[in-house]
Amino acid sequence: MHAELVKYWIEIAALLATPIAPHFTEHLWSTVLGEPRSIQFASWPTPGSAVDAAAVEAGNYMRGTIKTIRDAELTLIKKLSRGKSAPYDPKKPKAVRVYVASKFPEWQNECVGAVKEAYDGETQKVDDAKVREVLQKKGLLKDKRAMPFIQLFKVNKKKFLVRSPFDMEQD
After folding, report:
1. How far is the C-alpha of 24 from the C-alpha of 40, rounded, in Å?
2. Going by DSSP bridges, is the β-strand pair 119-120/125-126 parallel, antiparallel, or unpaired?
């Protein structure tokens, strides 16, 4: 761990917590950080750079994946505690491998292209009929993976509006 990064984190955390816990943050500011003046004279923190939307999305995805893994493990433990058999030994060490792709597979690129063609920027909506038409032309309408993949863009409206799915082609 980098000492300067830890110190910076403590400084920012203290500044943000000052309105809620002024006595505690004053202690952190003077004792832990060794600042000569009171935290009350310090400026409110300002971000050094813009938020990296891709990193936030990746973090959210990994958080969801970890929750899914833990929930599955909990389900298996409950199953074992009821005397049922399960292909799981809670005493053995566990490992998970995460693979990260640098680009979409070709069929997903085609789906993204179909959504891009059917996207209306004014209404910020995707025309489902046009998506089906484009997928039909490309021969992907029969692919069982295509529509669930396209639905990912439409389910989470906030993510869709903040960062267009077409930007993901370049990630």
Report:
1. 12
2. antiparallel
Q: What is the dihedral of CA 24, 27, 32, 38, to 10 degrees?
A: 120
Give the count of beta carbons closer than 10 Å to the beta carbon of residue 49.
Answer: 5
- DSSP secondary-structure letter at 19? T
Specify the 3-state DSSP secondary structure of 120: strand
Q: Please, which residues bridge with residue 119 across strands?
A: 126
Sequence-distant (≥ 6) Cβ neighbours of residue 107 within 8 angstroms = 140, 143, 145, 146
Other beta carbons less than 10 A from residue 44's beta carbon: 8
Cα angle value 84/88/93 (rounded, 5°): 150
CA distance 25 to 23: 6
Q: How far is residue 103's CA from residue 126's CA, in Å, rounded to a whole number?
A: 23
Token representation of residue 79: 């199953």
pLDDT 10s digits, 100-130: 888 888 888 888 888 888 888 888 788 888 9
Q: What is the mean pLDDT of residues 37-58?
A: 90
H/E stretch holding 157: helix 157-162
